[in-house]
Write a structure and sequence with these properties.
Layout: H1 2-8, E1 14-17, H2 26-29, E2 36-40, E3 58-60, H3 61-74, E4 81-82, E5 85-87, E6 93-98, E7 104-108, E8 111-114, E9 138-140, E10 154-158, H4 162-171, E11 178-182, E12 189-190, H5 199-207, H6 211-231, H7 237-240, E13 252-253, H8 257-260, E14 266-269, E15 273-277, E16 280-283, E17 288-290, E18 293-296, H9 317-323, E19 341-343, H10 356-375, E20 381-384, H11 386-400, H12 430-437, E21 445-448, H13 452-458, H14 464-469, E22 493-496
Helix pairs in contact: 10-12
Length: 505
Amino acid sequence: MAVSLKDKLQHDNVVIYEKAGSIGGTWRDNTYPGCGSDVPGHWYSLSTEPNPYWENYYITQPEICAYWEEIFQKHDLASRSLVEWDEENGWHNLTLEDVVSGQIVLTQAEVIIQAVGGFTLPLFPQDVPGRENFTGPLWHSLHWRHDVDLKGKVVGVIGNGCSAAQFIPIIAAEPTTRVINFCRSPQWFTMKGDYRYPEWLKWAFAHVPFLMWAYRSSIMIRVLTLYMQQTAPAAFHDKMVPTYPPGCKRIIVDPDYLTALHQPNIDLEWTGIQEIVEDGVVLKSGAKIPLDVIIFGTGFCLVERDITFRGNGDLTLKQYFESEGGAMGYYGTLFPGFPNMFTIVGPNSASGHVSLLFTIETQVSYILKLIRPIIDGKAKSLEVTQEATACYNTWIRKRMKNTIFLDCFSYYRGDNREGARNVATFPGMMILFWWITRRPRWDDFKVVGGERGGIDDLNRVPQFLFALDINRWTQGEASVGVATNSLLVEQTLFIVCVSTVGPDW
């Protein structure tokens, strides 16, 4: 975002507020053994910053962290960064706390861009109580304890998603470490291999009716089931093959987890945990399992933030989500009642199975188009209308209705994993997301100040896809009664802790 502001809008008055001592987001924080991307490296790179030097097809956490650090230094972003922050901010009035010195800093920004990502806070399942009772080492994979030697220990790993699947084979490589993996539900695994579709098959996918559907459903189920049955121990087959369709939750690119299950020092436990006690866990069957160490590989809070954003009427973003029955927004980028605040990777903007960087770059491009009138002095603030947001989300839910996303327990359904709707993924191909965000629909916004005529000129582009696919969007001139709290004459943009994707539960 900061690079694009400098290069594309020639706007250099940018401040990045980072809550840690260095950049990197989830790839800085997740340092557990085996951590890496399940998206191939050349697809997990910015289109403007390709990296010809990736070591392997799938890239590791140290490589990814170094990649972002290099971009950060290359574009001289460090000189505009404040680090070590913990904040509670209002709309345009930011309250920042330096967590090292304790100093409270009050500042202002004309535009706020929330770029904290979706994998910044660890999730501990509420139905597994008693963490405070355990007397041994206990941690979440997000905060790996590199000081704890696992040799000779009995380690309980709670969760069997992407994070756990990556670090279990690594810690279990030590034969004196016994790993008990507590699983809630089975996962779909696919081979971690390099496979390219031949041109004839891609042509067939594009032109043969229902072939893609058949491949995604019955054929995909057979292929994944066959791989899992050929790779995992036969004793686990009846528990490990899911009954929900592939794609309902993120498919795990197998990091040798299934092969590792053949080792005698790894056990799977499918009985639910009743509670954690001082020396282990008690299962819902009443059985007690003694443990020396407990590691949570249970993913992240997707919706919850450790930052308070306040909009018009003192409404917080959290309160807005609660009033709507879950996280929702406009193009996953804006929220009614929050002028001049933009989000990267907001509700229903991600894809479950491709690189998130495409979404990020698409939203960055969209945000640049929205804030250009503010930077050029054609507007002081803009806010998406409630009507446009409601109409867009009606379309989202209509498209989501016949999808597979509510068929299983998944972080796509919010932080409790079982919400009434999908709040994470976009219900369509990501090229459609790019298409609908390629030009702003200015009539969907309340605009305050500046030269309204300049905005109107930008709105004279027909949106044929919307007219066909969403039936009818809210039209007409919106009201301009928006609070413009403490707008600065010289624009300053606030960008919060850029973070990318990470493993999930």
